[in-house]
Amino acid sequence: MGSEYAEDKVKRNPGMVHLIFSILTFSFAAIIYAFWGHLFSQYYHQVYGLFHFSQERYVAAVSDFTEVINGNKRFVYAYSYRGRAYAALKEHKKAIDDFDAAIKLRPDYAADYVQRGEAYWALGKLDLAVDDFARATKQNPRYAFSNYEAHFLERGSIHYDEKRYDLAIEEFTMAIKLNPENSNYYHWRAVSYSESKKHDEAISDYSVAIDLSPSNPDLFYGRANAYYWKGKYVEAIKDATIAIGLNPDIANYHITRAMSYHRENQYVQAIVDFTEAIRLRPTDSKLFRERADAHEAAAAADRQKEKELSGK
């Protein structure tokens, strides 16, 4: 009885059917429009954001990419490009926030680390900048930062010349982070360590540099000196001998080996090396004194041996 009444009511009120159908149609259309409208809006702002960015209209680019982000919080490219636009506007803190978001969504993309590093650099946060540059290089070796390396090398050299060795070490360390395959950076830091009497650290850096550049005699010479000041004369002799083998015409190599021989009571070998150093540097009066000392030590050793053998 109830169903018959409802059917009769609908038959007697066809406008209600039309109304219900209209509501459903409108709702469906609204959903479709909202979906496609959202996609169209996203696409529109993406395209124009890139266009404005390419035309260096960075304020407009920021506005477009903000619209994209508001519609999709996980759209990584929008964060990357808005960050670059902010950086171009010198709003580096905002740029860093965007690169942070991009890196969180896509942690293995080297370019975002480069961009964030440059923003840190612009703010004077060099440690953070170098860390980001190092991450970028590790992920993609094609990235090189020679201009930043030159910055640290110049500052390190100035500190070294002014005998601020700890500061020089800090600068050379930054350069090493940016390019850990450059033996020169380890060499210069090793020299700074030696001047600071941090001979273990110097030996470590010389060893890395030697692995990278095994045909550089200066590296063996530097490590030989570090061993000498550590009292490891046998090791010093070995390294000085390698340096001499690579380049026999450097007086300092012979001097270091001569002094190490002297400390090991090998006076004849010391005299031979001092003699060669004098040939290479004939106006250095100290070398004649060192050779004379070696002769005297050898003579004293001979007299002592004579006494032992003669029983006197």
Instruction: Provide the β-strand percentage band.
Output: under 5%
Fold-level CATH name of the domain at 27-124: Serine Threonine Protein Phosphatase 5, Tetratricopeptide repeat
- What is the CA–CA distance across the termini? 145 Å
Biggest sheet, open or closed, and with what strands and sense? none
CATH class of the domain at 27-124: Mainly Alpha
CATH architecture of the domain at 27-124: Alpha Horseshoe
Structural summary, described in words:
The protein is mainly α and 312 residues long. Among the domains are: 27-124, Serine Threonine Protein Phosphatase 5, Tetratricopeptide repeat, CATH 1.25.40.10; 233-312, Tetratricopeptide repeat domain (Serine Threonine Protein Phosphatase 5, Tetratricopeptide repeat, Alpha Horseshoe). Helix content is 82%, strand content 0%. The chain is built from 16 helices and no strands. It has helices at 2-12, 14-54, 58-71, 76-88, 92-105, 110-122, 126-139, 146-161, 165-178, 183-195, 199-212, 217-229, 233-246, 251-263, 267-280, 285-310. Helix 9 packs antiparallel against helix 10 (183-195). It is rod-shaped and about 105 Å long. Mean pLDDT is 86; it is low at 16-40.
What are the salient characteristics of this protein?
single chain; mainly alpha; 312 residues; Serine Threonine Protein Phosphatase 5, Tetratricopeptide repeat
